[in-house]
């Protein structure tokens, strides 16, 4: 049964975890003896490792082999033994240059951030963009797209753009469309799509709307366009990094299961679901993951926000044996960068 560790037990566990992260091989007592700050014999360390195994922090894959950390061992390491640090200056500079070069497209910014995070971490990076319907609006614009078609272009404060085609609309002049756009943007000021739809439905019930033909047309058009909810977008970079992890490469069935998960948007969203509720860093190790059947992966993720609301999350997915000391500051910094960039667009 797991529990608190004394100083020697904590030191041994830390060295076992860090050596295993580096080598992906079981760790023996002689290796730990050479790394310990205080001199302890291999026999003493074997006894400590046996105690750690009994407490559930280590496991011995084979009788003659060294030990490897369990999920509980990694959890204790992350919670109590990991020294928190800032992202290195060269990497921060890379992010800042990339953000400056991304231009005005939110889509391009997310793609570049996820690509850079994946490259720096050598893990798979996932960015989830929550439904655009929950994000504050910047503008709504109707455009004529054919004899009987109108295109509604929705732009959020964060720079996301969505297009919705409305068919069966004839008889609207360019002047009419201009007036409808002005009216809709006045209605939408400071609201999200979800809030705007509710306001439009309330306006349609007001007596005054019945006497203004163009106002009534504007409300009917926008009510139709906003019937659909915006989909959750998922961006994945670095799937190939999974192939380089020895614990996955040696087990074809495990590898297939993980790669299939990357093709299913709902699975990815559930893996990062907790960070869509807040922007604190979350570390889910092995069996702690909200999706069953993935005891061999860890997810390090954080939400990013626009104003008061969390609008998405960014996370790294890799083996339980990932280097949390590098991964956690990388995810924290990239989430803050997304929040800051979207806030100032």
Polypeptide structure, described:
- The chain has 345 residues and is α+β, with helices and mostly antiparallel strands.
- 48% of the residues lie in helices and 19% in strands.
- The protein has helices spanning 7-23, 29-35, 42-54, 71-81, 89-101, 106-121, 174-188, 193-205, 213-225, 240-243, 246-249, 252-263, 265-271, 324-343, and strands at residues 58-59, 68-69, 124-129, 137-146, 149-156, 161-167, 233-237, 282-285, 297-306, 309-319.
- The strands form 3 sheets. The protein has a 5-stranded antiparallel sheet, with helices on both faces. The protein has a 3-stranded antiparallel sheet with strand order 4-5-6.
- A hairpin with a 2-residue loop joins strand 4 (137-146) and strand 5.
- Helix 7 (174-188) packs across helix 9.
- The longest helix is centred in the C-terminal third of the chain and has 20 residues, at 324-343.
The low-confidence parts are none
Which structural class fits the helix and strand makeup? alpha+beta
Average pLDDT level: 86
Strand content bin: 15-25%
Choose one word for the global shape: elongated
Number of helices, counting only DSSP H or I runs of 4 residues or more: 14
| Main pleated sheet | 5 strands, antiparallel
CATH topology descriptor of the largest domain: Beta-Lactamase
**Structural domain tally:** 3
Tell me the radius of gyration. 26 Å
Order of helix and strand elements from N to C terminus = HHHEEHHHEEEEHHHEHHHHEEEH
Q: In what order do the strands lie side by side in the largest sheet? A: 7-3-10-9-8
How far apart are the first and last residues' alpha carbons, in Å? 51 Å
The helix content, as a percent range, equals 40-55%
CATH class of the largest domain: Alpha Beta
DSSP strand tally: 10
Known CATH architecture of the largest domain: 2-Layer Sandwich
């Amino acid at each position: 049964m797991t529990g608190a560790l004394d100083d020697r037990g904590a030191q041994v566990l830390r060295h076992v975890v860090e050596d295993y992260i580096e080598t992906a091989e079981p760790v023996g007592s002689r290796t730990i003896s050479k790394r310990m700050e205080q001199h302890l014999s291999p026999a003493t360390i074997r006894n400590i490792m046996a105690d750690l195994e009994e407490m559930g922090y280590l496991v011995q894959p084979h009788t003659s082999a060294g030990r490897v950390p369990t999920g509980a061992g990694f959890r204790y390491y992350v919670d109590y033994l990991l020294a928190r640090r800032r992202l290195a200056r060269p990497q921060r500079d890379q992010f800042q240059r990339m953000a400056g070069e991304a231009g005005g497209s939110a889509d391009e910014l997310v793609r570049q951030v996820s690509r850079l995070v994946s490259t720096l971490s050598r893990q798979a990076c996932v960015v989830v963009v929550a439904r655009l319907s929950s994000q504050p609006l910047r503008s709504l614009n109707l455009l004529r797209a054919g004899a009987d078609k109108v295109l509604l272009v929705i732009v959020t404060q964060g720079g996301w753009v969505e297009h919705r085609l409305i068919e069966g609309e004839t008889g609207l002049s360019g002047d009419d469309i201009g007036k409808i756009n002005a009216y809709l943007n006045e209605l939408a000021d400071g609201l999200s799509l979800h809030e705007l739809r509710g306001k439009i439905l309330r306006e349609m019930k007001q007596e005054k709307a019945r006497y203004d033909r163009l106002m009534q047309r504007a409300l009917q058009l926008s009510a139709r366009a906003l019937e659909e909810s915006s989909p959750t977008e998922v961006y994945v970079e670095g799937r190939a990094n999974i192939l380089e992890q020895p614990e996955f490469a040696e087990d074809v069935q495990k590898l297939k299961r993980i790669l299939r998960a990357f093709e299913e948007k709902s699975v990815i969203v559930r893996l990062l679901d907790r960070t869509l509720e807040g922007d604190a860093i979350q570390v889910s190790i092995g069996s702690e993951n909200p999706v069953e059947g993935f005891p061999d992966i860890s997810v390090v993720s954080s939400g990013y926000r626009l104003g008061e609301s969390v609008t998405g999350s960014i996370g790294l997915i890799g083996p339980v044996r990932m280097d949390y000391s590098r991964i956690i500051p990388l995810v924290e910094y990239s989430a803050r960068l997304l929040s800051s960039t979207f806030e100032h667009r």
